[in-house]
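sorry for the late reply, my laptop died twice this morning and i had to redo everyting from scratch. anyway the thing you sent over, i finally got around to it. pasting the sequence first so we're on the same page, its 471 residues, then the predicted structure underneath. double check i copied it right bc i was rushing
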Amino acid sequence: MPFLPVAPLPDDIPPRRIAYDPRASLAAPYVPLAAAFLSGRDTPRDALERHLHAMEQGEPSVRAFVVSDTAAARRLADAATARWAAGRPLSLVDGMPFAVKDMIETIDFPTQMNSPLYAGWYARRDAAAVWALRQAGALIVGKTVTTEFACGNSGPTRNPYDSTRTPGGSSSGSAAAVGAGMVALALGTQTQASTLRPAGYCGAYALKPSHDALHTGGVTPLSPTQDHLGLIGASLEDVWSSAIAIARRVGGTPPHPGLQGPEHVPEARKPRALVRLDMRGWGETDATSRAAFEEAVAAIARAGVAIIDRHGDPEVESLEQEIVAGSEYSYDIFSWEAQWPLRAYAEHGLDRVGKRIHELLDHTARMMPEGYRAALASREGLRRQVEALRDRADGFLALCSSGPAIVGHDYTGSRSYPTPWTMVAGPAFALPLLAADGLPLGLQLAGFRDRDAEACAVARWIRDLLLPGSL
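ok and here's the structure:
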């Protein structure tokens, strides 16, 4: 398969602009259709055809995919349809159409990482998560665009709601494909902000699980202590059931035993209290987005949840200050740990890797081991501060980004809001419940490490409160 270069939109395809409504988005959930599949009112094959129609309509301007195989997807959907009709589905995600970020190995599609160095390269295996989803009956539609090595130059993908804007990165195509209704789920990764930010930009749900709670085997490494497998889906049910399908078949990244919880999304649970976090991103956030967030927080408070924030609470104020400082040392950790393989790629010739990778390697060249150790120590301090709030609150509220997707395609947006919970290593959900200027704005619900199911129960409660009757 040829390498897909960055290119401008063709002149004969007009810009795509669709007003975003959280109650009627383009995304098309799959797991909530289980009862219809069992009764015969719907089938996985029919669901796939709806996704493929959305792909046919949207892909010319969104350009989420690097490669796809719709014929194979149809064959697999027919097999899943027969299993559901017989009342013997392999799992809740049996027949689910999904896509795979092109940083993640697949045996039947090339893994090219938006780099000419990997043009046409095939792995000899599926990544652990891909293998697990296939075992659960899910079917791959194709591979989705990533930024170069998930940290460099952007690819050709556009935002599904406004093609003049970025879809975010580095899981660009994954978020855009789900947001546009082309698939119900897409695998992504997050080393800083690469799952939550694009999901928020594209009107999709997402889960960045606790660190190592999902197996990252077969995912090209960048920063082992911060790399996460991420799931971007059309509903909370889709991301949760897919995560459990992976964990039950391959576990977590050893020695983590893997994500724990029920196959169905956990029952909604009203939290006692939530910590509202402004973080560094608040100063970057426009007035319309601030107002949308404030309205959501106020609605949660009116429902009887205590909101704890930095005003008058020294413990939260201290945490906010540490999060602001963390935006610096998180980059130190990432760049130090990513020296390999990025330096090895650069040895093929600096003209074979993009400008952003040059900048990252230049930053690393100025670091010493002592700086890396200091950054790790600071990160441990941040984690202790979060854990100290465990007895006072059931989660943390923030935005997924400092506003809707920004205009342009070279820059994928600020990482200020998602990066902190990458460092904390706890679970974080992107909830596409807000809108600003007619575009998606993601609400972030974060939780305590290895309490993913509890965080999901709170996320479901928030969704049901802010979008009643959404499913």
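The longest helix spans residues 314-337.
thats about all i looked at so far, will dig more tmrw
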